[in-house]
Amino acid sequence: MRKRVLFVVAVACLAGAVLAAISTSQYLRIHEKGMEEKSFCAISEVIDCDIASASSYSSVAGMPIAWFGLVAYLLIGSMALFGAISKKNRKSSVAVAWFLSIFALLYSIRMAYLLFAVLGVACIECIGMYIVNVIAAFGLWRALNTPLKDTGKFFLDYIRAVFKKPSGLGFQPKIVAHAFVVIAAFGIGAAVIYNLQGGPAQKGVTLKEKINAHYMQSLYDIPVNPDWPVWGNPDGAVTIIEFSDFECPFCRLAAFNVRPYLQEFKKDVRFYFVNYPLDQSCNPYLEHPMHMNACLAAYAVECANKLGDFWSFHDDVFKLKKNMNRDAIIGLAEKRNWNPQEFAACLDSEETKKRILADIEAGKRAYISGTPSLIIDGRRLKYWRDPNFLQAVVKEEKKRAKSR
Asked: CA 175 to CA 159: how far, in whole Å?
């Protein structure tokens, strides 16, 4: 065997384990705290690891795939290192490491397709792990000294040797010992990540119960106003309407989490934002004062929408939090090189106020009493904070749309 190559594979797998650990940490942070705070590799709309971690493709059985990648890298790297430093011929261990690396490589091809073609983003950590998978698969193949033309024969000989049949493999597979090691490694890994995620404490209402409760609700007929800002595909089969208030803390939570969790459905979903400020200065249906600058913020995003920059401005207004006031909002306009006097005039215009009042009336007709209120194809999304629930309901609505 080529021991230098095995050392290279072991180092590459260590790098892969580090990347997988970082990715796992981001997954846990996002699913615990949301996405208001961006990670270091959420650089732009195109380069964004957070979108990858928020998608339904980032987990299996509710546990992050990156964590199982970490386990796989440690396992493959350990076997490669064992083969490199052992004085005995450890081809049986290197062969198992190679098989694992081939599976990892094939899986990374699938994930790369989902990342680029479905989510439409590039993830630095993911790409790094894909490169490690290529190095491991190619390096272990080279270490086994198997010519390309004999690769298929190697697999067949391995299977024959496992079943104690004559083969030209040259070594005896230790299938029982290696199967035990692999199963134990992934079993321990699953137990560790389960406890890191909170274990039984995170149980409660199951996903199935949430979905059943969702579809027991009455349907609301909410006509879509073409003036509402839309994200995703305006012709999408699934309609989500969010009634929101810019001074509402939970609305801020929804603003930085719902759309990222829907990124994989961007071609299927049309997501509308509707202002419902809990502010007596523009909302005639409030009995008590609540949010003193919510109407001002609603006017501001309506003006931003007219200038063609709704969603970015929407995010920046939410980020103001307690610093939300007229000067701060006009400051956001100035950062975009918009004329501050014209923007201020838009804030005060009767046309803008009528547009927001129209949103409020739409909310009243939909029996909105609090924010955020999210409605998908006529049903309220009560558990919108649970990404698994949100993604499961969108998938179900896609199926129902096709059947219709």
From this structure: 10
Distance from C-alpha of 65 to C-alpha of 156, rounded to nearest angstrom: 30
What is the rounded average pLDDT for all residues in the chain?
93
Q: How far apart are CA 105 and CA 133, in angstroms?
A: 5
Q: Pick from 189, 23, 153, 173: which is nearest to 97 by CA?
A: 173
- 176-186 pLDDT, tens per residue? 999 999 999 99
Residue type, 325: N
In this predicted model, what pLDDT tens digit does every residue of 352-403 receive, in sequence order?
999 999 999 999 999 998 999 999 999 999 999 989 999 999 999 999 998 8
Rg for the chain, CA atoms, rounded: 27
Percent of the chain with pLDDT over 90: 81
Is a pLDDT exceeding 60 seen at residue 200? no
CB-CB neighbours of 333 under 10 Å: 23
Q: Provide the token pair at 181.
A: 């090691």
DSSP states along 204-253: SS-HHHHHHHHTTSPP---PPPTTS-EEE-TT-SEEEEEEE-TT-HHHHH
Q: Looking at the chain, how many residues does it have?
A: 404
Residue 370, Ramachandran bin (φ over 0: left; ψ between -120 and 50: alpha; else beta): beta
Dist CA 196 CA 180 (whole Å): 24
Q: Which token pair is 116?
A: 């680029």
CB contact at 8 A, 214 and 393: yes
Q: Is the dihedral of CA 151, 152, 156, 162 positive or negative?
A: positive
Look at residues 166, 66, 164 and name the one whose alpha carbon lies nearest to residue 108.
66
Which DSSP symbol is given to 279?
A: -
In the structure, what pLDDT confidence band is assigned to residue 1 with cuts at 50, 70 and 90? low
Q: Is the pTM of this model over 0.70?
A: yes
Distance (Å, rounded) from C-alpha 365 to C-alpha 352?
A: 20
Which tokens hold the place of 329? 């909002």
Alpha-carbon distance of 100 to 136, in angstroms, equals: 9
Strands 373-376 and 63-64: unpaired
The mean pLDDT of 40-67, rounded to a whole number, is 91
Spatial contact of 60 and 68, defined as CB atoms under 8 Å apart: yes
What integer pLDDT is reported at residue 205 of this predicted model?
78
- As a whole number of angstroms, the distance between CA 226 and CA 307 comes to 16
Cα separations (Å) of 133 from 13, 264, 337?
Answer: 8, 24, 46
